[in-house]
Amino acid sequence: MLNYNAAAALFVFSTDRKNILKKENFYDQDISATQKEAFMVTQHTVYLALGSNLGDRQTLLRAAIQELQQIVDIQRISSIYETEPVGYLNQPRFFNLVCYGKTTCTPQELLKRAKAIEQQLGRQPSVRNGPRPVDIDILLYDTRILTDNTLIIPHPRMHERAFVLVPLTEIAPDVVDPRSSSTAQELLQSVSLDGITRTNVQL
Ligand SMILES: Nc1ncnc2c1ncn2[C@@H]1O[C@H](COP(=O)(O)OP(=O)(O)OP(=O)(O)O)[C@@H](O)[C@H]1O
Ligand SMILES: Nc1nc2c(c(=O)[nH]1)N=C(CO)CN2
């Protein structure tokens, strides 16, 4: 691994001639804490599932993705699927999608930000599995297995939900659920695809 000086020197070398001259006076104290952090922060790969079944679902999912971009460098987004409600049946159909990207957030920070986005987009307290403008679930965080009072990763119900596994398999068929060691496409084989329709709705 490069030390700060070496990394910073490389950075300087890769820019213009004026900066190359600067290198001669380059000492450790020239690097701010922020620059050090920029060299050291770890990127984590996260998979998120989004759902919406209240209001203008397309606009709400678009807004949620835009907000998430502030904290996750989103690399891929699945199609939008229209899905029959699962769990609590007497509610409108959902739009569901899955995305993945890189973040420097810890799992708890990510959960906090996701919950804040849900609220910002109008989510009110409701029954479990009930209707909501936007729901954001953390499916996977690197290959971590984590269980605490407020957060379980991998998401404890992802393996049984076609509305998650279908879009997940579309964008990452080989991603592995570290709890079962099965890939997304393997998990998909164990669930019914009834009630899942791929749409042409664009974000
Ligand atoms: N992986 C996870 N992603 C998001 N929330 C989680 C996760 N694990 C645990 N939770 C907790 O679940 C709580 C309830 O979340 P939420 O209200 O979105 O549930 P739900 O959408 O009704 O049901 P489900 O969790 O089955 O999708 C959250 O406040 C959060 O603390
Ligand atoms: N089709 C569908 N059903 C659900 C969904 C969802 O996103 N899509 N979310 C739930 C609670 O998170 C409960 N039921």
Main features:
2-amino-4-hydroxy-6-hydroxymethyldihydropteridine diphosphokinase activity, kinase, alpha+beta, 203 residues, binds adenosine-5'-triphosphate, single chain, 2 domains, two-stranded antiparallel sheet, disordered N terminus, EC 2.7.6.3, six-stranded antiparallel sheet, Alpha-Beta Plaits, binds 2-amino-6-hydroxymethyl-7,8-dihydro-3H-pteridin-4-one
Give a short synopsis of this structure:
The protein is of the alpha+beta class and 203 residues long. The chain contains seven helices and ten strands. The protein has helices spanning 4-13, 17-22, 33-40, 57-68, 107-120, 162-171, 184-188; strands at residues 44-52, 73-77, 81-83, 94-103, 135-141, 146-147, 152-153, 176-177, 182-183, 196-198.
CATH fold group of the largest domain: Alpha-Beta Plaits
Judging from the principal axes of the Cα atoms, what is the shape?
A: globular
What structural class should be given to the helix and strand makeup?
A: alpha+beta
Ligand inventory? adenosine-5'-triphosphate, 2-amino-6-hydroxymethyl-7,8-dihydro-3H-pteridin-4-one
Series of secondary-structure elements, N-terminal to C-terminal: HHHEHEEEHEEEHEEHE
At the first level of CATH, what is the class of the largest domain? Alpha Beta
